Amino acid sequence: MSAPSLSNVCCRLNQIRDAFIFDHRKHFASPMDSRLVELKTSKPFGQPQIRLNHSRRRSTILSIRMAYLDEKLMDRSIVLQPADVLAYDLVQGADVRWSYILDKSAPEPPTAVLLHGILGCRKNWGTFARRLAKEFPKWQFLLVDLRCHGDSASLKKRGPHSVASAALDVLKLLGQMRLTPRVVVGHSFGGKVALSMVDQVAKPLARPVRVWVLDATPGNVRAGADGDDHPAELISFLSTLPKEVSSKRGVIDALVQSGFSKDVAQWVVTNLRQTPINGSSSSFSWVFNLKGISEMYQSYEETNMWKIVEDVPRGVHINFLKAERSLHRWALEDLRRIHVAEEQAAEEGGGVEMHVLEDAGHWVHADNPDGLFRILSFSFQGF
User: Fold this and answer.
1) What is the rounded distance in angstroms from the CA atom of residue 233 to the CA atom of residue 214?
2) pLDDT at position 149, please?
3) pLDDT of residue 157
4) 131 φ, ψ (degrees, to nearest 5)
5) Are residues 138 and 383 in contact, defined by beta-carbon separation less than 8 angstroms?
6) Per DSSP, what are the bridge partners of residue 286?
7) Which residues form the AB hydrolase-1 domain (predicted)?
8) Residues 357 and 322: beta-carbon distance below 8 Å
9) CB neighbours of residue 221 within 10 Å
10) Edge to edge, what strands does the sheet with 272-276 contain?
11) CA gap 126, 233 in Å, rounded
12) Angle at Cα 350 formed by Cα 345 and Cα 353, nearest 5°?
């Protein structure tokens, strides 16, 4: 028997709202919007499960308009406008009380934030997040499109496009949603974003936070070996392609012929969206801001987050995960500094820990999802 599916409710943060009206016909409505969004029920179990979605793309599902400003994470001088809101999915376990969205007295469920890497998007985490939600039904999982990526690419974000600015974007989103995450998981570029989030919030943190940095080092990114897929070269190659292409297969072939691996080529084309032409034939267009992504990757190579690792704020536990077959540039010096930080943090009330994921390359959540699930699961137990 298959597991109950997670139903979708589309949530577009178009305006800042202070309250909601609940309609007893199992619908939601905003105070100034007569349009309603039905709370769907999953079959065959008849158990309401919610997956909130905020995207800049047009949706056939009507919207709940909601937004909050969280004084816990954000300075009160920051005013959030609709254009500041990143695209996201909120995948919720079966035991999450959807009423906490409307009822501020209801307890906030424990939240984990999942961040993708360069040229990725929140959909990279979709299958894995649904698995986590099934196993840990009291949790909810926030999947975010970082600036210049996916459905957040259309946002008019000011530069510089950097690790720090991407982290601040996520903190703003959490503030607006009134969420204080217990777990932050970042893959590659997203790992440094997670560290920067910890660096930018007030310290000590209000509650313990576990940060997972998946196959990324805190310091400078080193050049890989010959034959590795180099992100900078990939970004440069993509900049030579037209903004619209006739087929995904053509892009895959062009990438492979230029020396990139087939796996990377197939992953890159997940950034193509079909665009109808004259109601019949169609083409594909890129959904990322490649110029901004180029700046972000340069920032990723240069950003040094060792200070937060070697002086971990009280209440924070930083976990590094190295893929066994990673093409990412780990050095013995990186491993040595992390082990020294482990000992130092244990003495000062923080935490640093190193893990190795066997039988996995850099794409850890695709190469060995079972192993990654077992390692991460310890962060969600006890709730």
Assistant:
1) 22
2) 96
3) 84
4) -65, -45
5) yes
6) 272
7) 113-373
8) yes
9) 20
10) 244-245, 282-286, 272-276
11) 27
12) 65
Is there a contact between 266 and 229 (Cβ–Cβ < 8 Å)? no
Average predicted confidence (pLDDT) for the chain: 77
* Residue 137 to residues 49, 141, 174, 328, Cα–Cα distance (Å): 10, 10, 21, 33
Residue 106 token pair = 């209801």
Distance CA 116, CA 216 (A): 12
DSSP string, 320-376: EEEETT--S---HHHHHHHHHHHHHHHHHT-EEEEEEETT--S-HHHH-HHHHHHHH
Let me know: does 111 contact 142? Beta carbons within 8 Å. yes
- Taking alpha carbons only, the member of 224, 153, 177 closest to residue 69 is 177
Distance CA 220, CA 333 (A): 12
Contact at 8 Å (CB) between 214 and 326? no
Three-class DSSP category at 316: strand
What domains are there in the chain, each with its CATH number? 7-221+299-380 (3.40.50.1820), 231-290 (1.10.10)
User: Tokens 């491993």 sit at which residue?
Assistant: 335
Residue with tokens 């777990």: 183
* pLDDT at residue 328 in the model: 62
How many C-beta neighbours within 10 Å does residue 16 have? 16
Whole-angstrom Cα distance, residue 215 to residue 341?
Answer: 17
Residue 292, CB-side half-sphere exposure with 13 Å CA sphere: 23
pLDDT in tens, 266-278: 889 989 998 876 6
Specify the pairing of strand 21-23 against strand 27-29.
antiparallel
pTM value is 0.78
- Per the CB < 8 A criterion, the answer to whether 221 and 300 are in contact is yes
Q: What is the DSSP string of 23-83?
A: ETTTEEE-TT----EE----TTT----EEEEE-SS--SS--B------TTTS-TT----GG
